[in-house]
Design a protein that fits this description.
The chain is of the alpha+beta class. Helix content is 30%, strand content 38%. β2 (33-45) and β3 (48-62) form a beta hairpin. The model has no long low-confidence stretch (mean pLDDT 95).
């Protein structure tokens, strides 16, 4: 299986913490860009349905950095089981993708 060169990673975090994670990922060149936006999350945790405001990090990076990025998020994140989901980028504006490559790694 051929892996995509670029991925978008979704991660939710508490307000305040999300911005710190975003900055750390960009500072470490593990992400070219991280968007942080507010979301309302509903999920089941420890047998009960939760409904909480969170912030969603939309992280753009290279597939080759994914394991290191996940480890870094886990080290910074307060959740026991943080959401960290990677989705392939199957195409896009070439100059932007080239910029992503230059800003990461």
């Amino acid at each position: 299986m051929v892996l995509p060169e670029y991925v978008v990673v979704f991660c939710t975090a508490p307000a305040g913490e999300a911005e710190a994670i975003a900055k750390a990922l960009v500072d470490a060149r593990l992400a070219a860009c991280v968007n942080v936006t507010g979301v309302q999350s509903s999920y089941r945790w420890e047998g009960a349905v939760q409904n909480e405001p969170e912030q969603l990090l939309i992280i753009k990076t290279q597939q080759s950095l994914l394991d290191t990025l996940i480890a870094r998020i886990k080290g910074l994140h307060s959740y026991e089981t943080p959401e960290i989901i990677a989705m392939p980028i199957v195409g896009g504006y070439t100059p932007y993708l080239e910029w992503m490559r230059e800003e990461t790694g």
